[in-house]
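INFO batch 0412 | record 1 of 1 | parsing
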Amino acid sequence: MLIKINTKDDLVKVAGYTHDSGFRDDDLRYDPNDKIFTLMSKEYLYKGRFIQRKTEIIKAECKLTLRGVQSCDVQFASKSDANGYKVVGEDYVNTIQLTDDRIIIITMFQRIKLHLTDLDGEFTYFIKGDNKDKGSNAI
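INFO prediction complete | emitting tokens
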């Protein structure tokens, strides 16, 4: 699935797909010459009826690409969570906010601030082969 990103409503739709998707530091890329920001993330399959537990099974892979990004500022909120557990490689997208001239991607452990000239990009959502018949939430 491909979503073109040109309006705030497009970004809200993308935020719904990226919520709780996991990524590592090397999945974030910013090219200051071409002014392109890319975030690759993975949506995992969760199991459990009342208590959801993440499995290692990848349900889908996501790619967010934004053009016209004048600057990218990654601020680590903490190297440990509220309970003192250390960050061990993977972070998770909580939400994406849009203000007049910037996008803020809020994750569990960092804030990614992107300053834009205009809102232009796309989001792709790749459902992994074995999960197509397991109630994927892709449209």
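INFO post-check: The CA atoms of residues 1 and 125 lie 5 Å apart.
INFO record closed
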